[in-house]
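G.,

No rush on this.
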Amino acid sequence: MQIQVKDFTKSLRGYDINEVRDFLDEVAKQVESMAYENKTLRDKIREKELSILEYRDRESMLKDTMYTAQKVTEDIKKDASRDATNIMTQAKLRADSMLKQAQQDLKAVVEETSRLKKQKLELSAQLRSTLETHLRLLDRIEHEDRGTVVLDPKRI
């Protein structure tokens, strides 16, 4: 605009005014065209910068998401490892308890077997003694029936 309104002082030996005016109009058109192109390019640059910011935001969100996913994965692994350890510990405790109970049961069975064997020997001895006593009595009765008395101290 300034180029178009610019006035020069007139002199006798100066340039042709129409020629200067035409030249200034041409220069003004070119400057206006360049200013429009410059504005258009700046707008494009602004759009590209906004796109870049948007992509950076997306990249940041993706990084945050990946970090969170990695953290969650690590937490899941830690929890699974801790759970596995707990399960193994509980299984070992149960196995130890079952083994201890089985050992106690075995000891009780062995003691009961031993007690029953002892009782069997006692009963066997008592039965033998009772049978021997009855046999002596039978021998005595048989000898009395025949008229003889047996005085064997072992048999009485």
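When you get to it, here's the other one too:
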Amino acid sequence: MTAPDASRVMVATRVAATPERAFAAFTEQIGRWWVRDGLFRFTRARTGTMVFETGPSGRLVERYEDGAEFVVGHVRRWDPPHGFVIGWRQEGFTEGQDTELHVSFAETRTDPAQTRVTVEHYGWDRIPPENQVRHGFPLQVFSLRFAEWWQAQLAALDGALR
């Protein structure tokens, strides 16, 4: 038996929507359901609204009341309604340092009105534990905490779809 890959955080859930509707809610309506969290913030000093500029040249940003924004990442693959891949940065990442978020949407075999949403977040092994994003956690502990955070995000998405 091999050890789990702690450099990748993976969570999945079923939501009450078709893949098309779930994809649209995740991307076009992210500001309505995204849960802000004190531990895993994009920047230390500010909390804004998530905005997903959709499409193959899109980006994910946190936008603040004064119009400023923090660019989380740029779209690397865009395949509606099946999924997307974006880069992912947080404050404190050095130049050229990022992680990669893969989100997929698949119709369930048992109920076509439900979709399995899978989040795979890669690259945390490239972020040193002393980086403020990792909060000093060893990689396995950080990965578990970050997976819990993603589970809360997906639960909020499901709630918005109901």
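Residues 139-161 form the longest helix (23 residues). The beta strands are 8-15, 49-53, 59-63, 69-79, 83-88, 99-107, 115-122.

Enjoy the weekend,
O.
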